[in-house]
Design brief:
This protein is an alpha/beta fold. It contains eleven helices and nine strands. The protein folds into two domains: 71 residues, no CATH class; 178 residues, Nucleotidyltransferase, domain 5 (2-Layer Sandwich). The protein has a five-stranded mixed sheet, with helices on both faces. The longest helix has 19 residues.
């Protein structure tokens, strides 16, 4: 080996006896910390989020150094699967207008709720999951699971959000699924003063933030496990993911590397603020509201 590498045997033995340098030891400790963060994040964090978490824990590191060490250790985040289109464009249902127009950025809590439904495969068949997300904090404020995709699924998710959050004047935005157009769901919205908003049929960009959340859930929680699990096990994993990880601990680049709960706590410490304009029936009105979630 020494002949092939064109080095002296004495030099090789000297290298074996040499103690690791300060930088090498520091990199080894940092790599172990990175491994711990990756395990805690279920291999969902890339170098930017790992760097943010390290800095939060008091490590003075650069993004390039973290990326280099992750690459050397073979650590990488899970990747999304190809998007599959499952709906076909059509007309507007029941005359409900799009009050959002793809403007998902809002300055206060409980002004805009985004909702959607997906199906999750198990050995027992599909489990259907409906969620409601606060557009401001990205927090999942309501969710429900069952073995059918009836309107009761969306109603239960909305009822959870109503129990946990202030909802005066909130806009509920979704696609034009038949469940959201049902009389049962619309009656709940009307009885609580919730304004319904719907994007166009078959256009995922009209509800992109909710669609993106489901992609994150499937990438980080559901599709990571093989083979398929039972519906009971899947339900437990989804609940644990939402309540014990996503809402409380998973950091978001769009929230300044904070979790939804941390971001809401920061907002609740701020005084009342004048929000940007909000669309209501095609006209622009200013809203002077508190940022507290209730």
């Amino acid at each position: 080996m020494c002949r092939v590498l064109e080095i002296s045997e004495s030099g090789w033995y000297a290298w074996r006896r040499r103690e690791p340098g300060v930088r090498a030891l520091a990199n080894a400790r940092l790599t172990e910390k990175i491994r711990t963060i990756m395990v805690e994040s279920r291999s969902t964090y890339g170098a930017p989020r790992v760097t943010a978490r390290l800095r939060k824990d008091g490590w003075l590191v650069s993004l390039n150094r973290v990326a280099r060490l992750m690459k050397a250790a073979g650590l990488r985040a899970v990747h999304a699967k190809p998007f599959v289109r499952t709906t076909v464009s059509g007309g507007r249902a029941h005359g409900i207008q799009d009050l959002v127009q793809r403007e998902f950025t809002v300055s206060g809590l409980n002004r805009l709720w985004l909702s959607d439904m997906t199906y999750l495969p198990t050995v027992d068949g599909f489990v259907y999951l409906a969620v409601i997300q606060d557009a401001c904090s990205r927090r999942i404020v309501g969710w429900a699971m069952q073995n059918s995709q009836q309107a009761s699924l969306m109603v239960r998710a909305l009822q959870m959000a109503l129990l946990n959050r202030s909802h005066v004047g909130v806009i509920h935005h979704s696609d034009q699924g038949s469940q959201y157009c049902s009389d049962d769901f619309r009656k709940v919205c009307e009885s609580h003063g919730i304004r319904q908003s719907m994007g166009s049929v078959g256009d995922c960009y009209d509800n992109a933030q909710a669609e993106s959340w489901f992609a994150t859930l499937k990438r980080e929680c559901v599709l990571k496990t093989d083979p398929l699990v039972s519906s009971k096990v899947l339900r437990h994993r989804v609940i644990e993911y939402i309540e014990s990880w996503y809402n409380t601990r998973r950091i978001h680049t769009s929230l300044g590397f904070q979790s939804p709960v941390e971001f809401e706590a920061q907002l609740n410490q701020q005084p009342k603020t004048m929000l940007p304009f909000s669309r209501e029936n095609g006209s622009m009105v200013s809203l002077n509201v508190s940022t507290k979630s209730g």
